[in-house]
Amino acid sequence: MWSLLGVKLGCLAALGLLPLLCGLLPAALRCAGQPGSAQHWRSLVSCAAGGVFLATCLLDVVPDSLADLRDELRRQRLALDFPLPELILALGFLLVLVTEHVALDCSQPHREEATLLLPPGLEEQQDSRRRPSRFRSLALTLALSLHSVFEGLAVGLQDSPGKVLQLAGAILLHKSIVAASLGLLLLQSGLPLRWLAAALGAFVLMSPLGVGLGMAVMHGSGPDGTPARSLLQGVAAGTFMYVTFLEILPQELSSPTSRLPNVLMVLLGFLGMAGLRLLG
To answer: Is the separation of the CB atoms in 107 and 269 below 8 Å?
Structure first.
């Protein structure tokens, strides 16, 4: 029978290695591939990645953060006639909105990207294939990284090898798909390869970090849930919502060609992640 510590250390290594390889796969394929006919397939894969992020947002990040915030309110014995968890998500959403537009106004006030909230039809007339915003892509990486810490924390807090393997396997499959989608998004945003690798590395290391923190908590005396943890997870969920609905989906569905195949690929990515959520 494997020891609990050995199983957790093995899961920690797997959660760091496999998602990193999946995240770097789009860059490796781009370097090895040929332009032209591959552009159509790259667009379809990008739409499937958009569906992955949509499912991750609506079925994973947002429900988990809301449940965690409500549990924290119950632990603190606060009975409020006010949707405080939803407010914290909205604050995360507004935080990215304000920060991005202040940064755009200060650095590049005349750039077309300052009109981010134009209706899709008008934006197509200016630039039918605008690159994803680097700011939004990095904000999404930060939100995913925070969420990954809490996923890894759940693994580290398990008290039996069977539970550790079951939970870590589900997270590993989920995170590998998300890492590949994130790598594709960062690649499309025009980040230099060294920054892309650094962003992916930071995202991938968060789950092992969470596992380590959970192991430390189990062998220490600290609580496994704190108000700060719940607050950070709620803000991260709001950030994820902003980037998913105002960056990823509009970007992937803005092409005037292949509209129906693009929508079908979004549905395919969404249903795939929904199936994983149902099984996991």
So the answer is: no
Tokens of 118: 């134009």
- Give the contacts of 280 (CB within 8 A, at least 6 positions apart): 170, 173, 174
| Nearest Cα to Cα of residue 245 among 61, 45, 46, 50 | 50
Distance separating alpha carbons of residues 201 and 19, to the nearest angstrom = 9
What does the pLDDT look like over 74-108, one tens digit per residue?
A: 888 888 889 999 999 999 888 878 877 776 676 55
DSSP code per residue over 3-33: -HHHHHHHHHHHHHHHHHHHHHHHHHHHHHS
Cα–Cα dist 53/273, whole Å: 9
Phi, psi of 117 (to 5 degrees): -100, 15
Helix (H, G, I), strand (E, B) or coil at 60: helix
Q: Where are the alpha helices (DSSP H) in the chain?
A: 4-32, 38-56, 62-75, 84-107, 120-126, 134-156, 161-188, 193-218, 227-243, 249-253, 259-279
- Report pTM: 0.65
Q: CA 249: distance to chain centroid?
A: 14
Separation of alpha carbons 275 and 267, rounded Å? 12
| pLDDT at res. 113 | 44
